[in-house]
Specification:
Layout (H helix, E strand, L loop, with lengths): L9 H4 L7 H11 L3 H11 L3 H17 L8 H11 L3 H11 L3 H32 L1
Helix pairs in contact: 2-3, 3-4, 5-6, 6-7
Amino acid sequence: MADNKAKRGGADRALIALTEKYEVAYWSKKFKVTPAKLKYAVKKVGRSAKKVEAYIKLQKHRASDKSRIALSEAYEVRYWSKRFKITPAKLKAAVAAAGHSSRKVEAYLAARKTAKKKSARKTTKKAARRKSAA
């Protein structure tokens, strides 16, 4: 359905018309999303600008929340400890050391793993030297 250009009241301003290029450009810029994401949001929740704005904010919040580790939630602790293949206690220690970002925790754990491998190599070399010296 095309936008009625004769109506200029508040009811028309509160709706998003995907058939008009200028409206798609305006709302995309206002909500700071691509036109494709705007169209998807309108199809998902309807033409109301308020509903679309709420939906887009929720999606942005969820996207940023996915990469953070919330230790206060038991299911999050279970998920991340399984993902990193460590115990919940080690996960809590890693989060305390590196922060709540999953990327930082992953990098921290990888650095600790390589440090352990290096120290294990040194101890095996020392043990080999002791055996050959004896």
